[in-house]
UniProtKB/TrEMBL annotation:
Keywords: Repeat. InterPro entries: Mito_RNA_Proc_CCM1, PPR_rpt, TPR-like_helical_dom_sf. The keyword Manganese does not apply. It holds the Pfam family PPR_2. The keyword Repeat applies. PROSITE patterns: PPR. This is Pentatricopeptide repeat-containing protein. Belongs to the PPR family. P subfamily. It comes from Rehmannia glutinosa. PPR repeats lie at residues 215-249, 250-284, 285-319, 320-354, 355-389, 390-424, 425-459, 460-494, 495-529, 530-564, 565-599. Coiled coil: none annotated.
Length: 616
């Protein structure tokens, strides 16, 4: 092709493009005039102009400095919502153009809304490099660019687009933009909400590397995330590192670590954090006191808990309902209902509202002391205040009734539970079954547990153990062993109580070979015999008249750091006495008293009977 032809084609294309551009500018000017002259919220633009719109015209209109930013926004929204008139939706360029116009007039909320819509719109491709390129073309002010990228970073975080957000962060770092710590905080919070604690920690480390301002709030948030992952050691090291950099922890930071160490039952580390708080001059807040009271209550350190409670009062820190509930729960566990009720009255006088946990603690206390009549007014008070009686409270009451042998009351309560939609679970069945066993209604207990299985409620370790115990007491060892195998097959591992029930059954029937074999099986599975195991074996050997074997088993106990109890001594003294071995029986009696155990009538009867035994 000759140069003349090439020139002619180029001239034609250029003329065509020039005409097209000129035409676009004319349409843009007409739309601009309509927008500038528009006084109402509705837009009066000729449909013919709208039908000729393209992305270039849209950009010319939105970027026109003579058009107010508010009018640009109205035009943009018009294009978004009137797809029938103008099927061409605003593209990425249009979104960025209107955002920059709104930035100029500091309408940041609307900027963020439009940016968010662009990010979540799957039909609108917004790759970050293209955003950077467009922003470079239309924005020259570094301050606006910085604000835009900061907003984009937050929008990506809000929409959990972590990779894209990290890309913005790295771009800002590499191009010298100031990173706002508050935006990083948003990013960290979203990581935490999504349980992405490893990513949270890595990003925080990146913040430190990039010299982003670290505050106590972001530090505490990351420490909390690490503690939730049980990486308490790493959390502690992070705090110590940042303290050396001049960042001062607050009460919430220390409380987070205290809570983590309390959950690990690490009293040494709890004391270390308390010492660090004191050294830093950080006062305890109500959450600190609550954590400490809960901690001491769990360890049954009543005096320590009381000291913390009194210190709280001396410091003028008002105890909230959680603190009172912790103290009430502690006293109820110790069966000190007088103090528990006094604290309950005190919190009511101070205008605090007891919650379900507060009432639950008191109900647990009265049930534990066997005062079932006192539970009724507490329940009525809960109902009058509109506090729901939860499953835990119902189970506590059931257990209280069953331990007192009040099975009919327990049945009645279960009926109430079902009426209010609380279907009995395995714990309810276990409580009632154990109550029936307590009053020797073993057949009813068996029927109850089998009906539970028929209803599709899977038995747990306690249910299987109860059935094994019943069969063992009946001497039905075939069924007892069958239950033991089924239990293991269903993934419920037998514990000491399970094995002890079966061993005791064998021993009382004189089946010592089976009892000894079961003990070996128990030990092979990593379960160590306890005082109940040894007591059953001692008793069994005495029943079959093998007193020397019983003594051998008894002598094993000190070597295993197991102290015999009253039943162990009584069984062996009775066995020796029946054999007329009075000297050995009396020697054991003296040993028993030296151990601080109180002999009962059976011991004295056996000792008297030893003088009439067969052997001198």
């Amino acid at each position: 092709m000759s140069n003349q032809k090439l020139y002619a084609i180029a001239k034609q294309v250029f003329s065509s493009n020039f005409a097209s551009r000129s035409n676009d500018q004319q349409i843009a000017n007409l739309i601009a005039k309509a927008l500038i002259n528009s006084t109402s919220k509705s837009l009066h633009i000729s449909p013919s102009l709208i039908s000729n719109l393209n992305s270039h015209i849209t950009h010319l209109v939105l970027s026109n400095p003579q058009i107010p930013a508010s009018s640009c926004l109205r035009f943009f929204k018009f294009l978004q919502t009137n797809q029938s008139i103008n099927p061409q939706r605003p593209n990425l360029e249009a979104h960025l153009t209107v955002i920059l116009r709104l930035f100029e007039v500091r309408r940041f909320a609307e900027c963020k809304s439009i940016l968010n819509a662009a990010v979540v719109d799957d039909n609108l491709r917004c790759p970050f490099p293209e955003i950077v390129s467009l922003l470079g073309q239309y924005c020259v002010e570094p301050d606006i660019k910085s604000k835009f990228f900061d907003m984009l970073f937050r929008v990506y975080a809000d929409n959990r687009k972590f990779d894209e957000g990290l890309g913005v962060f790295e771009y800002m770092v590499n191009n010298g933009f100031v990173i706002d710590e508050r935006s990083c905080m948003v990013y960290l919070i979203v990581f935490k909400k999504c349980n992405q604690f490893e990513s949270l920690y890595r990003f925080f480390r990146r913040m430190i590397e990039c010299n982003v301002t670290i505050t106590v709030y972001s530090m505490t948030l990351v420490i909390d995330g690490l503690c939730k992952r049980k990486e308490v050691k790493k959390a502690r090291k992070l705090m110590d590192d940042l303290v050396r950099k001049g960042i001062k922890p607050n009460a919430y930071t220390f409380n987070t670590l205290i809570d983590a160490y309390v959950k690990k039952s690490d009293s040494k580390r709890v004391e270390e954090i308390l010492a660090a708080m004191e050294k830093a001059g950080v006062d305890y807040n109500v959450a600190t006191y609550t954590l400490l009271i809960d901690w001491y209550a769990r360890c049954s350190k009543v005096e320590d808990a009381e000291k913390v409670f009194e210190k709280m009062r001396e410091k003028g820190v008002a105890a909230d309902i959680y603190v009172y509930t912790s103290m009430i729960s502690l006293y109820c566990k110790l069966s000190d209902m007088k103090r528990a009720c006094a604290l309950f009255d005190e919190l009511v006088e101070k205008g605090l509202e007891p919650n379900a946990h507060t009432y639950g603690a008191l109900i647990h206390g009265v049930c534990k002391t066997g005062n079932m009549d006192a539970a009724k007014p507490l329940l009525e008070e809960m109902q009058s205040k509109g506090i729901d009686i939860n499953r835990v409270i119902f189970n506590t009451l059931l257990d209280g009734y069953c331990k007192q042998g009040m099975i009919d009351e327990a049945w009645r309560l279960q009926g109430i539970m079902e009426k209010i939609g609380l279907e009995p679970d395995v714990y309810v069945y276990n409580i009632i079954a154990n109550g029936l066993c307590k009053v020797n209604r073993h057949e009813e207990a068996k029927r109850l547990l089998f009906s539970m299985m028929d209803k599709g409620v899977a038995p747990n370790k306690v249910a299987y153990t109860t059935l094994i115990d019943i069969y063992s007491k009946e001497g039905n060892f075939v069924e007892a062993e069958k239950m033991l195998h089924e239990m293991e097959k269903m993934g419920e591992k037998p514990n000491n109580v399970t094995y002890n029930a079966l061993i005791d059954g064998y021993c009382k029937r004189g089946k010592m070979k089976e009892a000894r074999m079961l003990r070996k099986n128990m030990e092979a599975k990593g379960l160590l015999p306890d005082v109940y195991t040894y007591t059953s074996l001692v008793h069994g050997e005495c029943i079959v008249g093998k007193i020397d074997d019983a003594l051998k088993v008894f002598e094993e106990m000190p070597a295993k750091n197991i102290n015999p109890n009253v039943v162990t001594y009584t069984a062996l003294i009775s066995g020796l006495s029946k054999e007329g071995r009075s000297d050995e029986a009396f020697k054991l009696y003296d040993e028993m008293k030296e151990a601080g155990l109180t002999p009962d009538d059976r011991v004295y009867s056996s000792l008297v009977g030893s003088f009439h035994g067969n052997k001198t």
